[in-house]
Amino acid sequence: MTVGESVGVERPPRTFSERLTRIVTKSPIHIALALVGLIWLLPTVGLLITSFRPPSEILSTGWWELFGGRFNFTLDNYADVLGSQGMLQAFINSISITVPATIFPVFLAALAAFGFAWIDFPFRDTLFLVVVGLLLVPLQMTLIPLVELFAQLGIFGTFIGLWIAHTAFALPFGIFLLRNFFITLPRDLIEAARIDGAGNVKIFRMIVLPLSVPALASFAIFQFLWTWNDLLMALVFAPRPGGLPMTTQVSSLLGTFGTEWHLLAAASFLIMAVPLIVFFSLQRYFVQGLLAGSVK
Question: Residue 212: pLDDT above 80?
Answer without folding.
Answer: yes
